[in-house]
């Protein structure tokens, strides 16, 4: 959530940059300022009435002491009238504050000045391509056929237990999944991230803190009776570990493996087939809390870290800088990683690495104290390192031969086998 004072001081700049995200919010921001002006006037009136009431209340006792009860009783009636007026003003103030918050919640984060202009993923800017795209033998299969041939994942069983989009990993398929999770966590820990294993269910305050609520409530799985939500990513519980805190030391670096749950409305075809889109999937996340002065250097470090993992997995990949139209609601700048699926002949997204600047921190009341003792909002960043389904799919497809699937060397010590 943007800071109201920041919006006032940078109105034209904010409106200009929000248009990069394809948001035209001049009218909403104007309404926001009007409501805030009304709130300030309301507060002035309230303060005046409270001061007047306090003075009268003090004099009532003196009139009683001096025996002038009639005057004291009249003043008591005046105080009662003032209390009614104050109560009315407080009600009006609450309504104004609700209007202000509702508008603020509809304003996305301001994109970084480097975000490319564009309306969709077709306008994202490729900034790096790495690795060699494999040339597969004739008759090479997509992963949804390979997992049946090698008995790695059972989608029909998952459909029986839960429904579409909830796979069951079996035997060596489960071992490969666990190997990837362990490898990702080890890489992150080596890079200085502290591992956490958080709850997989969060409350409404947590969803609000990182920006999923209230705007994207329909995309989440909800436990209605308790007003709780299954997490869409470890970003939510991990970042909320620091809600309402003032940190004395930065950076804070966290990593976590969790299952993730998303009620994505899927279309049909190969784009969502097999592991390409799931309602439950595993992901290892990295989260950093940083000093605003250093957050964009850290963003590049996080991008480099994810690149190292994909290099070691020997997967061809590319990095894209997201354009304004494809940039997330809470993000200021995002880099997406896509691996190439040789059997499907298409790029598959496996990671997003984002800087949210102070947008989440303002919701979370997450601040830091600098060396001078001054307290300011932190910047928050996160990224997938990595989301497993499409990495898993690309490993199977890109490394298949006629009789086996060879695994990346870096996974040997985790799987205990070199091929399927």
Model description:
This protein has 420 residues and is of the alpha+beta class. It contains 13 helices and 16 strands. Strands 1-11-12-13-16-10-9-4 form an eight-stranded mixed β-sheet. Helix 3 (26-65) runs antiparallel to helix 4 and helix 5 (143-149) crosses helix 12. The radius of gyration is 28 Å and the shape is elongated.
Give the strand content.
15-25%
- Major sheet attributes: 8 strands, mixed
- Coarse structural class: alpha+beta
Counted by DSSP, the helix tally is 13
| Element order: H for helix, E for strand | HHHHEHEHEHEEHEEHEEEHEEEHEEEHH
- Strand tally is 16
Q: What is the rounded Rg?
A: 28 Å
The overall pLDDT, averaged over residues, is 95
Task: Give the oligomeric state of the chains in this entry, treating copies of one chain as homo and distinct chains as hetero.
Answer: single chain
Shape: elongated
Keyword list:
420 residues, alpha+beta, 8-stranded mixed beta sheet, 3-stranded antiparallel beta sheet, 42% helix
């Amino acid at each position: 959530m943007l800071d109201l004072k920041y919006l006032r001081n940078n109105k034209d700049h904010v409106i200009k940059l929000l248009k990069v995200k394809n948001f035209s919010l001049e009218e909403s921001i104007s309404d926001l300022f009007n409501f805030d002006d009304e709130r300030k006037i309301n507060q002035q009136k309230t303060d005046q009435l409270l001061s007047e009431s306090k003075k009268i209340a003090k004099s009532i006792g003196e009139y009683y002491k001096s025996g002038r009860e009639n005057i004291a009783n009249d003043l008591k009636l005046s105080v009662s009238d003032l209390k009614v007026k104050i109560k009315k003003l407080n009600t009006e103030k609450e309504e104004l504050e609700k209007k202000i918050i509702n508008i603020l919640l509809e304003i996305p984060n301001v994109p970084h000045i480097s975000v490319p202009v564009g309306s969709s993923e077709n306008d994202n800017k490729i900034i790096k391509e790495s690795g060699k795209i494999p040339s597969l033998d004739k008759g090479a299969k997509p992963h949804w056929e390979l997992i049946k041939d090698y008995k790695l994942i059972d989608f029909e069983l998952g459909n029986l237990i839960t429904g579409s989009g909830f796979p069951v990993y079996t035997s060596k398929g489960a071992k490969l999944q666990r190997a990837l999770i362990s490898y990702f966590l080890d890489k992150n820990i080596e890079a200085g991230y502290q591992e956490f294993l958080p709850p997989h269910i969060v409350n409404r305050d947590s969803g609000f803190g990182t920006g999923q609520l209230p705007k994207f409530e329909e995309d989440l799985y909800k436990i209605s009776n308790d007003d709780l939500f299954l997490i869409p990513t470890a970003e939510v519980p991990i970042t909320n570990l620091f809600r309402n805190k003032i940190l004395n030391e930065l950076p804070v670096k966290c990593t976590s493996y969790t299952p993730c749950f998303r009620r994505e409305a899927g279309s049909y075809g190969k784009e969502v087939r097999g592991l390409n889109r799931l309602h439950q999937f595993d992901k290892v996340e990295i989260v950093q809390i940083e000093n605003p002065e250093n957050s964009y250097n850290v963003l590049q470090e996080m991008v480099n870290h994810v690149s190292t993992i994909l290099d070691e997995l020997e997967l061809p990949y590319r990095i894209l800088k997201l354009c304004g139209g494809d940039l997330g609601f809470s993000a200021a700048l995002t880099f997406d990683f896509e691996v190439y699926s040789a059997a499907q002949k298409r790029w598959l997204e496996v990671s997003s690495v984002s800087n949210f600047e102070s947008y989440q921190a303002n919701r979370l009341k997450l601040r830091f104290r600098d060396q001078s003792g001054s307290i300011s909002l932190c910047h928050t960043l996160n990224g997938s390192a990595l989301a497993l389904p499409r990495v898993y799919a690309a490993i199977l497809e890109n490394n298949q031969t006629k009789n086996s699937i060879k695994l990346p060397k870096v996974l040997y010590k985790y799987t205990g086998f070199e091929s399927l």
